[in-house]
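W.,

You were right to be curious about this one. When I first looked at the sequence I had no strong expectations either way, so I just let the prediction run and decided to look at it fresh. Below is the sequence, 156 residues in total, followed by the output.
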Amino acid sequence: MRAIDFSPLYRSTVGFDRMFSMLDNVSQPEPAQTYPPYNIELTGENAYRITMAIAGFGEDDLSIEARENTLTIKGELKNDEAIEGKEVLFRGIAGRAFERRFQLADHVEVRGASLENGLLHIELVREIPDAMKPKKISINADSKLIDAKVENKSKK
């Protein structure tokens, strides 16, 4: 695959460095991660939910961290007492450690997480600041300004 050089754009733009870094990362293929399986759902106009199937993991085995538009979920079984002392004939429930990262868009915040029935639910909300929301601007014609322009044209 051919690499694209974004360095000429760095010197003529301000504030787009994160976007160029993301484009650089997209061009570099990562190994496909299939464990643990997950869903991303749209639950409202600006609300999302990530659901991960993590059978066998408890709250103490998981860590969730949001930093700089990256959500990182790590899982590592700290206590595997259920297997000790037992002879397992077939192990179909994976208990291996994992780390899954999600890139979050600007202004997306993690609202909470819950673990139930082997599913980890992470609630996300996009909250756009008031300063960035579209504003309705009314058009007001200043009659004095219009009259002054008409008088100037008539004097010529």
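Here's what jumped out at me. Helices lie at 7-10, 17-27, 143-155. And, maybe more interesting for your project: The beta strands are 38-44, 47-53, 62-67, 70-75, 98-103, 108-116, 119-126.

Coffee later to discuss?

I.
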